[in-house]
Design a protein that fits this description.
single chain, alpha/beta, six-stranded mixed beta sheet, 11 helices, 41% helix, 18% strand
């Protein structure tokens, strides 16, 4: 009887211990995480990735390092195919811009957004029509008037890549204004900004964060923003001008609107637990002063999405880009 009671006591103790034992630790990285940028250095995607890397490091938000790697070849196709091929590898992320849609549609490479695992939308990025500050153009109307008076193709628009966001906007601008420009592609937004400052192109549609340094330095001038409303940042950025002082392109007679994704994806085959880890990580990033400064300086639309909402948004956006690129004549055969 004593042995039976002792055995029962042992069994009860074991059962209590089992319930009291801590649950297995949630998933987290065990080696450095590669953060792929499918674009060149100095552009908006590259800047965002490096700010996130710096925040993660400074605030010790991850147990391992984060390493930013640029893979811009093939209009970002190199980067996307790299992440697609890393099925089941939770130590790889990619920051996307709208070449997530435009690159496969324009090139026909064997890739689509469904080959990746959505994590989170970090923000939406704006586009601004910029000219060199030494030019006489003070408004978008001034610039359009000059283009209409010049031979077709005389004015050069610099942009990131071919058949990508910048060229889509350029074609829409041409159609709306009834002008013809010469589009000159470069590897990234940073290089595009340098070319405008150097006078090698007449205008760009760079994102705010890609041209803010040159604006502050008095080297470039914003003419209008390709959004339905003016930007919300009201404190002065360049001299006595704020982002909110830039008129919409629509108010200048250009019926063109475009916002661009800044989002995070993982390779295919990621588990829910792994996705949840990075969603939580990105939420922590967004709470830091460094992130808030980036959002301010770049006048970003700070929309955040994850889960089903993000997946549905991405799917809808792919369809929108298919229509935009069809209208511009940019679709590859078979698309």
């Amino acid at each position: 009887m004593r042995k039976q009671l002792f055995a029962l006591a042992l069994g009860t103790t074991a059962l209590v211990a089992a319930f009291a034992a801590p649950a297995a630790a949630a998933w987290q990285p065990t080696r450095p995480v590669e953060f792929i940028v499918p674009a060149g250095t100095g552009g908006g995607a590259d800047q965002m990735a490096r700010v996130i890397q710096g925040i993660v490091t400074k605030h010790n938000l991850m147990p391992t390092a984060m390493v930013v790697i640029n893979k811009a070849g093939g209009a970002g196709g190199e980067g996307f195919l790299d992440v697609k091929s890393a099925r089941g590898n939770p130590h790889k992320l990619v920051v996307t811009l709208s070449n997530l849609f435009t690159t496969p549609l324009a090139t026909g490479i064997p890739f689509g957004w469904k080959d990746l695992t959505p994590v989170a939308m970090m923000a939406l990025d704006e586009f601004v029509l910029w000219v060199n500050a030494d030019t006489p153009y003070k408004t978008a109307q001034d610039y359009i008037k000059a283009m209409k008076a010049a031979p077709p193709g005389q004015f050069k628009m610099g942009g990131t890549g071919s058949k990508q966001e910048d060229q889509i906007i350029t074609v829409a601008l041409e159609k709306s204004a009834g002008v013809k420009m010469t589009y000159i592609p470069f590897k990234g937004g940073g290089e595009v900004a340098v070319q405008l400052v150097g006078g090698h192109v007449d205008s760009t549609v760079n994102n705010p964060i890609e041209a803010v340094a040159q604006w502050r330095a008095g080297k470039v001038r914003p003419l209008c923003v390709f959004d339905e409303k003016t930007l919300p940042v009201t404190d002065k950025i360049a001299g006595d001008q704020a982002w909110s002082d830039i008129p919409t392109c629509k108010s200048a007679g250009l019926d063109v609107e475009y916002l661009m994704l800044r989002g995070i994806f993982m390779p295919p085959g990621a588990t829910n637990e792994q996705v949840d880890y990075y969603v939580d990580l990105m939420k922590k990033v967004r709470e830091t002063p460094e992130w808030k400064q980036l959002m301010h300086d770049g006048a970003f639309n700070q929309t955040f999405m994850s889960g089903d909402d993000y997946t549905k948004w991405v799917d809808k956006e792919e369809q929108r880009h298919r229509e935009l690129m069809k209208g511009a004549g940019f679709l590859a055969a078979g698309n």
